[in-house]
Design a protein that fits this description.
Chain lengths: 113, 115
Amino acid sequence: GESVGLHLPTLSVQEGDNSIINCAYSNSASDYFIWYKQESGKGPQFIIDIRSNMDKRQGQRVTVLLNKTVKHLSLQIAATQPGDSAVYFCAENMVWSSYKLIFGSGTRLLVRP
Amino acid sequence: DTEVTQTPKHLVMGMTNKKSLKCEQHMGHRAMYWYKQKAKKPPELMFVYSYEKLSINESVPSRFSPECPNSSLLNLHLHALQPEDSALYLCASSQQTSGRTDTQYFGPGTRLTVL
């Protein structure tokens, strides 16, 4: 999602429901995508990644979907738990710049008990 | 083990002070990074070291001076900072696999306040 000023877009879900966090990436030349979770006062924590030769990848309770046609990335979290509450960042990397990650603006996930 | 450690956790300094941030990883990664993160914003890349050599400097002011003493350590020397430099400073590391992008693993960060 897009943020304006200092306000992060927020997704509020009920505990136990599935969450879907969306991200529009900027460059069709990007070949690597990654999702990070950042809890308050902590560094970004790797969740899952996907390369451009795939359109879906699954981890434990998480799935990343990549739609290169519309330059869209999503993170699905199954059976969302209170510990999932955090800010989630997507990031992309362009094939000609293997070091530089371009981060999205972030989405805050709030899990209601 | 995907741990990157950073010290100190918090740092308060005056504009005339000199201080250093430290980062360490023992994953055998050969690329190390410094990022700056302001509140409610994504991390912004500052520097990249590859095989202990400075590879990228994102036009960072000279009051920030990185150093990579060996393949496991990364320092960020701070001098004559401004209050607007207050932020969370993150270190990250990744492998150096030829021909592909590797996952960057972040440390917990140093919360810097410049008075």
